[in-house]
Structure formats: C-alpha cells, structure tokens
Specification:
The structure is a homodimer. The first copy, chain A, is of the alpha/beta class. Chain A has three domains: 11-53, no CATH class; 63-163 and 299-318, Response regulator (Rossmann fold); 166-298 and 327-356 and 364-381, Rossmann fold, CATH 3.40.50. Chain A has 13 helices and 14 strands. The structure holds a DNA duplex.
DNA sequence: AACCGAACTGTAAACGTTTACAGTTCGCTC
DNA sequence: GAGCGAACTGTAAACGTTTACAGTTCGGTT
C-alpha cells in the first residue's frame, strides 16, 4: 500500500478507504457480485473520492481501447463529413470513441495509418483511400486490427469494403437529362485515373448509347474538383462545342461552376442549359436554382462501414464482405421547370436508421416537391 | 521470460532474440545510448520482427496519451469543420491524434465530456459549448486535464478561451451596406438567447445609430439557422415592411434563404436587394451571385485554441488567457455591382500559418476581385 | 598490473487495472 | 455444534512499457 499521496484516486485509494482489497473494489465497480456491506462501502468511498477508472490501464489489461479510427483524404469535404457523422452516430451508442485522421490524399500517409494499428491504440479502422495500390492490399492484409475500406477494391482483396455505384448514379442523371428532351449533353469529369472517374465516364457513354446518341469526345472535359475549374470547363465547352443544352458534372462544385459560367453568358437555367451535379451536398440544396444531383449515399456508406467494423470487433469471423450502396437521383430546379426553388430535404433524412435530428427546427417537411429515383442496389458477398 | 507464444512482438520478444535485457531494448529504441554492438542487435531484431511499441502501455507508464479531444455541437456545421481542420493541422505535426466528439448541442453531454477527462484517455480538450452555465464553469474548473473553450466566457472564468467578435463583424457588414447607400436594412437573426445572438443584435443597432437611422423593430426577425427559415423570414419581411433595400443575415444559410425568397418575388440582387451573410462558408462562394459574408475566423479560432491547449500541455503555467479573433468582411456580388460572380478565395487562404494546401489544384489566384476588411482584433489577458 | 571513473547493462519496480486461484466466511443441514 | 457447499474475499500475477538503482564492463591511467 502506497502512502495516500496526491494524484487522482485509484482502486488502491478506494480500497484503503473502504477497508477492502483492490480486487473487491474492482469487482464491485464492475458489478461482479459482493456482499451488500462491501458493495455499500466501496460505492460510498468511490463516490466520495469522485473516482473515475483509468481508461488507459483498463485498455492495457483488456487489450481493447474502445476507439475507432476514420481516415479520409480531407476533413473539409462534405462527403466525408457525412460519413463522419454516421460513423460517430453508429459507434457512440456502443461506447466507442472516434479518432479522426486526415491523410491529405497522401498514399504513404494512408499506409502509415494502417500500419500504426499495430500500436494497439485503436481497435479498428475505416479507411477511404485515394487510390488502391498493391502495397495497400499487402499492408491491409497484414493489419493488426480489422480494416474496412470505403471505396472500390479488387475482387480478391481480403478486406471488407463498401462502395458507391457511380456507374448507376451517372446513368440515372444522364437518363433524366435525355428523358427531358436534351440531346447534346456535355460531361465535366474529375480526374480520370481513379476508379470513380472511370466509372462515371463509363456511365456517361452507356447512357448515350442507350439513347442512340453518338459519343462526341469534344463534349467531355476532365479537370479538378473545384468551382472555378467547373466554370472554366463550362466556358471551354460553350466555346468549342456550340449547341450544348445540358451538362452532367462529376460533383456539385463543378456543377456550380458550370452554373456561374452559364449565367455569365446570359444563359438561363434550366431553360437554355440543364445542369446536374453529383454528391447531393448542401451546396446543391442551397444554390439558386437548386441543383439536381446524384446522391451516392455517403451517409449510408459511412453507416454500413461502421456496422461492418463493429461486427468484426464483436468477434464475428464471417467471410470478407463487399457491399454496394445504391445511387439516388434528386431532381431539383436546375434541370426541371416545375421543381421548387429550394427544398427542405436533408441527406440524412433519406436514411431511416439515421441519427435523430438534434435540432428539430432545422428539418421541416421532407423533400416536398423533390423527386428521388433509386438505382437498384446490388449486394454481393465474395 | 515467457514462452515465445503467439501475439505481437514485445520488448521481451526482442530482448530474447537479441540476447539482451528488456531494459536495453527500451533504451536502444528510445535512443538512450548503448554500445554499438547492442544497438545493432536490438535494431536488427526489432526490424525482423516488425516490432511496433504498444501505445497503450506507453501511455500508462508515461501518463500521456498524445490524444486531444475536440467537442462541438455538430460535426456537419462548416464552421466546426474548419476548426477541426486547423486543430488537426496544428496538433498532428506534434504527434497528437484528434478525438472527435459531437455533443449534438446537449448541455449534459458537454459536461460529460469534460468530466470524462478524468479517465486519462485524452491529454486535453477543446470545447465549443452551446451555452455556458454555472455548472459548466464548475466542472471545467475541476477538470482533470487542460480545457480550452471556443466561445464567450464570463470574465472571471478560470479557463482559457478564444472568442469571435460578432459585434464588430455585424458592424462591418452593416457599415458596408449603409455606405453603399442602403437606407432600409432588415436583420434576420438566429436564436436571440445566446451570447452571439445578443451581440449581433447589438452590432445591428449600433450601426443604425452611427448612421443616424432609427431602429425599426419591424425590420428584425428572429428564427432558426436554416435555409428555409431564411426564406420564410425574408417573405415575412417583404410582406410586412415594404421598401426594404438590404438585409443582413446571421449566417450564410439564412442569407441564401433570403436570396431564394427575393428571387421568387422577382427582385434582383444586388440591384433591388443587397444581401449579406455571416460565416463566409463555402456556400457563400458557391452561390450565385456570390454572397458577401462576414468571416468570424473559425479556422483561426481553431488554430489558436489548439495552440493554447498545446502550450498548456507543454507544461507552461501561464495565467488564464482569453483571445478575441478579428472579424473580416468579404465583399462579393450580392451587395456590390462590380464584384465578380465568383472568386477563388478559400477561408484557409487567409491564414498565413495555415496548413499547407494538400491539393494545389484547388486553390488558384487568391481572392482576386474580393475585398476584405478587418475589424481590429482586441487581445486581452485577464 | 592494479586501479579508476565512465559508460554501459540487468534486475526489479512502477503505472492502474482485471482476474485466477486459494483462502476465508457464511448460512444451512443433520 | 460439527460439517458442508456456496458465496465471498484477498493475494498475486499479468498486460507492455520506462526507469532508478546497483552491478558490470571497458578504456585509459599510474
């Protein structure tokens, strides 16, 4: 027994005060049964001392920290923000804390996060890689803790994953544009050397083929994900390929850039030019006219990833799982004449299992006047 | 010496393999000096085994976890997102991880976060309280680890804090509107029973008084922070008080709602109605016309809070500090005829000490055509 | 060749828990 | 009132590190 020095109370302090052994203290505090008299004295001593168990010591003994790590390229990106929200909402009720890691889209940093699981500081990882290399697969396969990837992985990869369906998403948007009579639809894509970039391109060409339209390479521009990049791209398109009546953009920022450019030239939206974006971020709802956008289910992907990880941590030793989240088209004023100027739809409102809204004043009637179309989800286990 | 069973390698495993004691292993690994021969053997053994030190054991021994906690009301709010980014950017180079906690604006949850510092799981806390009660002050004063508050605290509070200057911010926006010849400026405020709510109201009335204008209560509406709430409020104002030529809104969402409402009625912006918002979020840049907005320096508040906390953790035992971050007005097309339709200014671009941009393609020429005015910052130590 | 101090190394304790095991108490039954 | 399980309690070890202390080695001096 140490002298009752300064420092916060420990089981030892309580044991001394209650006149029992530290084992009894631990047992009472964890509800493992003791004589009523013992329980009373320990609980009283603990309460008087304001005892709080040392989580670090507990983690060392128990081998679990009750911490999860979420690593993504950029904290600021609204897509990842909604993932964070859902992961948090899923993990918190089970007593897990969330550790945030921004990789700044540096591949080496991603690898480091996976490797650092070996330091036992976190019980599991949800990773959004910018691009998946062979080294990624090797390192993840050897990870000291369960890893779930949000993104596309090769079929044989031994890692759980959740992916978006950007092919279907693009198809939904393109079909919508073409169904409303547009015949010359441009395409502003993000970097093409990524899986989503290639998938969107595929969706675009597929939709054109479906409609019996020819694919004109001059109608496609590849650029950065950026408002000003979107504006520049739109200007370029309008200069080089006159007669464009609609444009699909790989994210909402690009789409808003396109809207700006169109306005600069005196084009009316949607009358002269229909614009559709992707991600269904808050920007889409806020802009004027409100932006038609493809929702790739980032919130749901976050929730599913969290559930996958938690089930692994529960010790369930099932096969590798890979789930695909359906895309959903949210039609607003930028492509349709009869859509309202703004709507009250929030992306988490689309998720029945979502976190309860902390601030009821912020959500009103859900999506009145907003049309949503879902692509069929394909769920496969390999 | 235990049998070399499964499980990840520990100092013991390495010691056995290198033929030295665990103390030597620890010393070599921490660079505390050893004979070249010992160093070589330990390092080789560690490398061969792929040893990674157990961070939990380390934390238990050292009494520090190298983890910081950031607790705020809502992960999704862009204001907090930019704080997260800066806190992360400041703490990561010093080897600190960031634990995220969303309080969902529940006061009891805020108190729990502070109390849970006693579990030794985090080295310090940055808290954004929704409202500060006496109990908050008591609990923070008794906290087991340093706490920094982002928000306004009573003068005598024994806690470091960083606050925004919403009075000056409101004044900047109002002076700008009045200086451009507007004479009937409405005010859409958020909830009035908070410190920022009262401060904005004060700034509004002060600006009117400065300009020798009478304060007309019919021109002020108090509502929730919400796009649709902003639209509803604007409609109400235009119905009840005709002749309004400008409006200042307590955040960008409200302002965009006002823009929508004005468009619905065929009003031109800025010709018929000038609109200014607050927070200078991405929404302000993205909207059309781009929105004049007051930047309350959320990124900088995050950075300063992180620095304050880190200096406490460095053992510096200075007096309680309270810093106020200056407000800055960013003028864009929604109030000025000659402003560009959009600009490339990003809020972190305004911060010279900010995190380097991970994606150079996203930032172009900084703020060309955008006028920024700073309120003088007052920095005080109590 | 013995000696000395510096430099290194090993043993063991400590951080605060949880828990196996052995020892104790207790309420019953006969 | 002795005997018997069941229920409780205490001792001690374990989780994986770091580090004070004492013991060892080493080179260089005299």
């Amino acid at each position: 027994m140490t002298t009752s020095a300064a420092g916060p109370p420990t089981v030892e302090t309580i044991a001394a005060r209650a006149g029992v052994s530290i084992a009894s203290v631990s047992r009472v505090l964890n509800g493992h049964g003791a004589r009523p008299n013992t329980v009373r004295r320990v609980e009283q001593a603990a309460a008087e001392l304001g005892y709080v168990p040392n989580g670090v010591a507990r983690s060392l003994k128990g081998g679990r920290t009750r911490q999860l790590t979420f690593a993504m390229p950029d904290v600021g990106n609204p897509v990842y923000v909604s993932m964070v929200r859902q992961i948090q909402a899923t993990a918190k009720p089970l007593g897990y804390r969330l550790l945030l890691h921004s990789t700044d889209a540096v591949a080496e940093d991603e690898l480091d996060v996976v490797r650092s699981l070996a330091d036992r500081t976190s019980d599991g990882l949800i990773l959004v890689p910018i691009r998946v290399t062979g080294e990624h697969l090797d390192v993840m396969a050897a990870a000291a803790r369960p890893v779930v990837v949000i993104g596309s992985l090769p079929d044989e990869a031994p890692v759980d994953s959740v992916r978006a369906d950007s092919v279907s998403g693009t198809l939904l948007a393109m079909r919508h544009l073409l169904a409303s009579g547009r015949r010359r639809t441009a395409f502003i894509n993000g970097p093409a050397d990524t899986v989503p970039g290639r998938n969107r391109s595929l969706g675009y060409r597929t939709a054109l083929a479906e409609a019996g339209l020819e694919h004109d390479p001059a109608l496609t521009v590849t650029t950065e994900f950026d408002i000003s990049a979107g504006a520049a791209a739109m200007h370029r398109l309008l200069d080089a390929a006159p007669g464009i009546d609609s444009v699909f953009c790989a994210n909402d920022q690009l789409a808003l850039g396109a809207v700006h450019a169109a306005h600069d030239r005196g084009l009316r939206i949607p009358e002269d030019l229909a614009v559709a974006g992707m991600d269904n971020s808050e920007l889409a709802r806020a802009s004027h006219p409100a932006l038609t956008s493809v929702d790739l289910g980032s919130a749901e992907r976050g929730r599913i990833a969290a559930e996958m990880l938690l089930s692994r941590l529960d010790g369930e030793d099932h096969d590798v799982r890979c789930e695909t989240v359906a895309a959903r088209l949210v039609v607003r004023g930028s492509t349709a004449y009869d859509q309202p100027d703004y709507d009250h739809d929030r992306d988490r409102a689309s998720d029945p299992r979502a976190h309860p809204d902390p601030d009821p004043g912020r959500r009103r009637g859900a999506g009145s006047g907003t049309t949503a179309t879902s692509a069929s989800a394909s769920v496969s286990a390999s």
